[in-house]
Amino acid sequence: MTIDIDQDMHEYHYDQIKQVLADEPYASFLGMKLTKLGPGEAEAELTPSGHMLNSHGAVHGAIIFSLADYAFAAASNSYGKVAVGVSNGIQFISAGKRGETLVARAKEIKKNHKLAWYHIEVAAEGELIATMEAMVYRKNQYFVDQDE
């Protein structure tokens, strides 16, 4: 029988992990909401407003990137273990439009003791807006209380 410490940490500390990730300052500043959190996966959404558009009237790429990055951060930190981004690459596929809710979904592809890889998709109204591939370094420290 194998013990999955990451799974156990996610389940045992779920409320604390979710609260920490939902309160992420930059995501909160932009109006992003963490809507789902599972072990190695997350979903976040944002409805862009006028100041988030580019000069062509489409959602600025930095906003789309930020939403994808937030879902990636939530998924990779979903075990209560500190995970920090190492690399990512984003592909913009279609323009986001003002008023349409953007939804980013991050899913873990593989992880080991030190690294983990993720695939993130951003969509609006069922249309794929962007995809991202990303990797984190998994530190040896946790951001949840382990004394419980």
TrEMBL record:
Which keywords fit this entry according to its UniProt record? Hydrolase
UniProt key word Hydrolase: yes
Which GO molecular function terms does the record list? Answer: acyl-CoA hydrolase activity
Q: Which Pfam families does this entry report, sorted A to Z?
A: 4HBT (PF03061)
Record-annotated membrane-spanning stretches:
none
Thioesterase domain location: 56-127
Name the source's superkingdom: Bacteria
Alphabetical list of Gene3D superfamilies matching this protein: Hotdog Thioesterase
Q: Under what name is this protein listed?
A: Phenylacetate degradation protein
